[in-house]
Design brief:
Elements (H helix, E strand, L loop, with lengths): L1 H7 L14 H14 L12 H10 L5 H11 L6 H7 L1 H7 L6 H19 L7 H5 L6 H10 L10 H9 L8 H11 L5 H14 L31 H24 L2
Helix pairs in contact: 3-9, 5-7, 6-7, 10-12
Length: 262
């Protein structure tokens, strides 16, 4: 995951540390996020900490919408580790077959459910090391569960947050862990509980990968991204330069033609 993220979004990484945001600007960014959405929530649908854990495991390389569609019928049938194990891997595969990598995910969900029963009394542990010891659970998943289920001020770095943190100059880094550590260092403590959700929602709906919606962005004036999407009807800087050069060349050609005319 770290390798694909660092390669996929290398163009957003700011090597020039002078381009990173200043503490006052970071505070202002999160102040605006908080004013716009004081209580952000996960878009994954779940019933309890266990179903949240399962949903996050299923969401790897899949959309929240796709996961929610599959779990809408699954979770009423299996909302505890015991019920999931009783459901069985074959039935679970059938229930989540619309999700990418569903075979391996079904195997991991059954395995982590058994581990919860055997080692944690069927409860999801409120401990990072214990979570990461479960099959199919990595640091990002553990951070989401700790944050959403238990209210811990953790920041899970997915592709959206990795992109936003690098693109706007908030917490540049070459790997998800580096970005996470920098975010923990620069995000004011009063905003850290919801920072994960604000950043992921901003990346999912505004600061998107291909053509960020800069005209709709509430932090565009603070963002360090140099190639902002222009307001409709205006040309971006590069296009304006090219257009100006073309007009100049065209004018010169007209002048030459005028001189050569009888």
């Amino acid at each position: 995951m770290a390798l694909s993220l660092s390669l996929g979004f290398a163009l957003y990484i700011q090597d020039d540390m002078a381009r990173t945001l200043r503490p006052a600007e970071i505070d202002e960014i999160f102040s605006r996020f908080a004013a716009q959405d004081p209580d952000p929530r996960s878009e994954l649908e779940y019933i309890n900490p266990y179903t949240l854990l399962v949903a996050v495991v299923l969401s790897a390389q899949a959309t929240d919408k796709g996961v929610n569609k599959a779990t809408a019928a699954l979770f009423p049938r299996a909302d505890t580790p015991e019920k999931m194990v009783a459901l069985g891997e074959a039935n679970l595969r059938e229930a989540i077959k619309t999700i990418g990598l569903y075979r391996n995910k079904a195997k991991n969900v059954i395995a982590l459910s058994k581990a919860l029963i055997e080692n944690h009394g069927g409860k999801v542990p409120r401990d990072r090391d214990a979570l990461e010891a479960l099959p199919g659970v990595g640091r990002k998943t553990a951070n989401v569960v700790l944050n959403v289920a238990f209210g811990e001020p953790t920041i899970a770095v997915d592709t959206h947050i990795f992109r936003v943190a690098n693109r706007i100059g908030l917490a540049p880094g070459k790997t998800p862990r580096e970005v996470e550590d920098r975010l923990n260092a620069v995000v004011p403590s009063k905003y850290r509980l919801h920072a994960h959700h604000w950043l992921i929602l901003h990346g999912r709906y505004i600061c998107v990968a291909r053509k960020p919606r800069c005209p709709d962005c509430l932090i565009a004036d603070l963002c360090r991204y140099g190639d902002k999407t222009p307001v409709a009807g205006t040309a971006p800087n590069v296009e304006r330069k090219v257009l100006k050069k073309k007009l100049k060349t065209s004018a010169a050609k007209r002048m030459r033609r005028g001189r050569s005319s009888p």
